[in-house]
Design a protein that fits this description.
The chain is of the alpha/beta class and 408 residues long. It has ten helices and 18 strands. The chain folds into three domains: 69 residues, no CATH class; 196 residues, Rossmann fold; 114 residues, NAD(P)-binding Rossmann-like Domain (Rossmann fold, 3-Layer(aba) Sandwich). This is Methyltransferase domain-containing protein.
């Protein structure tokens, strides 16, 4: 059974502990949020219910560094970082996400003149974004990711792209070309300072190679009490300030820092510098005082949010309503396991065809296609990401499904 513990006092004696911050090396961290026994992976697809229900679990214990603003899961164990081809996180089946990805690719191509260039993507997943950059800028690319499936995404640029099924290491420095991008990977790495310094050493003495990183924004998680965005495999949580400090301390100068995709994603652009550390602060960074207040707000109010959703799902169950979740990824796993309400959801819907018929780790629910709802006709659909509500409503209208959308 999942258990949640919250501390509202970051500096109480039992919450401030001696623990080295993996982002800046500070010797003390303050714990503030704990969830026990959650799946160690959210996107590894299971072939049957039994394997899904017997999936390994671990604990989440979030701790905050008051020197750099970094938040990390102290209970994270890297032995579970077994990313493989059955790790299914491809988002390109959503028109909403595709529009965002195309606009982002075009903007980076224009800003950095990425035409007939060599591009390296660290943590490329199934290669969708790297393919966009290579197709739309006539570039050549190398994508490195242990979960990559060469040939999954068909492209006219296929002969200009090499995929390597591996974790990024210094031995891959030979693939550093004219531009480095890394999207939704850094949050899966706990020794963040060590990793960014590996990237910097890979670049060497070339100070003209831009790097672009994209990760979830933790300020939104704290302000919106978005517990569904806290899960085991995300061991590192960044705000604009903590991300910028990491890059400045690792031999980069931050050239741009901003949010996108409904303010859910945090983007950083940087250039390597000859010095070991940059002193240039970006105006988008929040102060440590501001961030401390946001962490305390989360710790003080998150229980109310959890209670609201538990009560809402219990009420629907009491009324014999048919309830499904839309979105079978990490948010879904965190939502259902944190609330410990697996019995109140009948099915989980996803637009990604590679997930259909598979089972969710730790949850045991079968993933169905949107077309399943034509016959099932649910009463309520809990949408894991509000940014997709319009897209989902259009699909429901076309299928003749009349259900209440309830977005997190």
């Amino acid at each position: 059974m999942t258990q949640t513990k919250i501390s509202t006092d970051l500096y109480s004696g039992d919450r401030r502990i001696e623990q080295t911050c993996p982002n800046c090396g500070h010797s003390h961290l303050s714990t503030f949020y704990e969830v026990k026994q959650v799946p160690v992976h959210s996107c590894l697809m299971m072939p049957n219910e039994a394997e899904a229900l017997n999936f390994p679990c671990g604990d989440v214990l979030l701790a905050f560094c008051d020197r750099c603003g970094f938040i990390t899961n102290l209970k994270f164990d890297s032995k579970w970082s077994a990313y493989a081809p059955n790790y299914e996180d491809q988002q390109s089946f959503s028109p909403t996400f595709n529009k965002f990805a195309i606009q982002l690719a075009d903007r980076l191509i224009e800003k950095y003149d990425l035409h007939n260039k060599n591009i390296l993507e660290i943590g490329c997943s199934k290669g969708d974004f790297l393919i966009l950059l290579c197709e739309r800028g006539n570039n050549r690319g190398v994508g490195i990711d242990p979960s990559v499936v060469p040939g999954r995404v068909q492209s006219e640029a296929a002969d200009r792209i090499t995929f390597i099924q591996d974790y990024y290491q210094e031995k891959h420095a030979e693939y550093v070309g004219d531009f480095i991008c890394c999207r939704h990977t850094l949050e899966h790495i706990q020794p963040t300072s060590e990793f960014i310094k590996i990237v910097r050493r890979s670049i060497g003495d070339r100070t003209d190679i831009p790097v672009f990183f994209e990760i979830p924004d933790t300020v939104r998680v704290l302000k919106e009490l978005a517990f569904e965005d806290i899960y085991y495999e995300h061991c590192s949580y960044f705000t604009p300030g903590s991300l910028a400090r990491l890059f400045r301390n690792s031999g980069f100068e931050v050239t741009d820092l901003y949010r996108d995709y409904g303010d859910q994603y945090l983007m950083i652009e940087a250039l390597p510098i000859a010095e070991s550390k940059s002193e240039k602060v970006h105006p988008f960074e929040e102060s440590l005082e501001e961030l401390t207040q946001q962490v305390q707000y989360f710790a003080s109010h998150i229980q109310e949010k959890l209670d609201i959703w538990r009560d809402r799902l219990s009420q629907l169950q009491a009324e014999n309503k048919k309830v499904v979740v839309w979105g079978s990824g990490s948010k879904c796993v965190a939502f259902l396991t944190t609330l410990d309400t697996l019995d109140k959801i009948q099915y989980v819907v996803d637009i990604n065809p590679h997930r259909h018929g598979k089972f969710i780790p730790g949850v045991g629910k079968s993933i169905v296609s949107p077309e399943f709802l034509k016959d099932y006709q649910p009463d309520a659909i809990v949408v894991m990401n509000a940014i997709y509500c319009n897209e989902i409503q259009e699909m429901l209208d076309r299928m003749g499904v009349r259900a209440e959308l309830m977005a997190l």
